[in-house]
Fold this sequence. Notes:
Layout: E1 7-18, H1 59-71, E2 75-76, E3 79-80, E4 82-86, E5 96-100, E6 106-114, E7 120-132, E8 136-139, E9 146-149, E10 156-162, H2 169-185, E11 198-208, E12 218-223, H3 226-245, E13 253-258, E14 263-269, E15 279-280, E16 287-288, H4 291-299, H5 305-314, H6 320-327, H7 330-341, H8 346-364, H9 375-386, H10 392-405, H11 409-416, H12 424-437, H13 439-446, H14 452-463, H15 470-487
Parallel strand pairs: 12-13
Antiparallel strand pairs: 1-10, 1-11, 2-6, 3-16, 4-5, 4-15, 6-7, 7-10, 8-9, 11-12, 13-14
Amino acid sequence: MAITSKYEPVIGLEVHAEMMTNSKMFCSCRVVDSVTAPPNTAVCPVCLGMPGMLPVINKRAVEFAMRVALALNCTIQPDNVFARKNYFYPDLPKGYQISQYELPLATNGWLDIALESGERRRIRIRRVHLEEDTGKLTHLEDGSGSLVDFNRSGVPLLEIVSEPDMRSVEEARVYAMKLRQILRYLGVNSGDMEKGVIRFEANVSLRPAGSQALGTRTEVKNLNSFRALAEAAAYELERQAAILDASGQVVQDTMGWSESRRETFSQRGKEEAHDYRYFPEPDLPPLQIAPAWIEAIRAALPELPDARVARYTSALGLTPYEARVLAEERPVAEWFEAAVTVGGAPKAVANWLINALFSLMNEHRLSIDQVKLTPAGLVELIGLVDKGAINTNTAKEVLAEMFASGRPAGEIVQARGLAQISDEAALAAVVAGVLAQNSQQVANYLAGKETLRGWFVGQVMKATGGKANPALVNQLLHEQLTRLEGEQ
């Protein structure tokens, strides 16, 4: 980022996340995929803003929002109020959005992030509140007009507003990634940014290094990827730095981000709260949340990623890298723990998951909950290796078969005759045969080319169809080569 040290970046994020409820925020219309569902098929008079229609609060959406607020260390407000946020846009049929303003659901939280340098930063959360999503506009390529789909109108939307605590683009990106991970862990949002179910808005400004005053900010709207967030924030910081270097003044503005041009552009003057003319929603009573409900939701929260990483390293003996990889997604963490529960050694299970199973999943583009291999199946396979029934290379071959068919490891080994050869006399004869058939390589080895030892091992493994016990092969090879050295 080409910003001189005389400026300090100041970034705050507003994150909008759709809640994965069955029905919408204020009506009984089902929540559908806004990309694949036929347009305007999941609508009713309430979410279309017809006159005289009365909204009703979705209890499940409130519960999901409370999960997030508690996971972000916020204080749940026992009394909060929905308000009308007035503005006019084609995808907002009522001419206002039901949101929260003065009395939001939760306030004063925080989220800790870890940067690549190892530094940890705490980002404060100003507020977490519920609102309804808008419809979706599709602008025709020929410029003849726009189409509006109201399927998304009224879907429960959670807004998470940070304080302006981020001091670099990296911090903003890491914060956004961590927040998405937590939403997925809590089961309230799919995290599918390509479908717009989570969107970022970055408030970006610069101030003189060492100053505590905030500079004039611009807000970059509707960023739907981590790359777009990072590139848009970086571009805005550079643009503002150029203005300040030229003794100009940054104008408070709402910006869009052009993916094709990789630059921001002005959309409209930045609104303040009074521009929206907030007032309490007259058709909804204040939302009162009982302390017992808060505590019940707190007790039901899953173990979050940071806590899992700490436990995996301290109690299970994993490296920090192994712990982070396995705790990244909740289904993977639960699969790993299921394997450990049925008797798998944590280090061995982690090694096979990260280095073998993940490779197969990536190759076939499957998630952990789509694979046919079970945690108990992997533990059985590891046990066959530990007992010397099969070697590691054969085990990888068996794993691929288990991944494709779901058959047990023992059954595959028996059916395909893959059992490891550990008969010392039989392997000694194979080793002797390999050395006898490759007299020139033996002579080169005895002359000092010790790297040929690995080549001899490979020839023995080839002769046994990969089923020889590698440790025993190395032992027998050492013995026979040593004897030949003594005969020189």
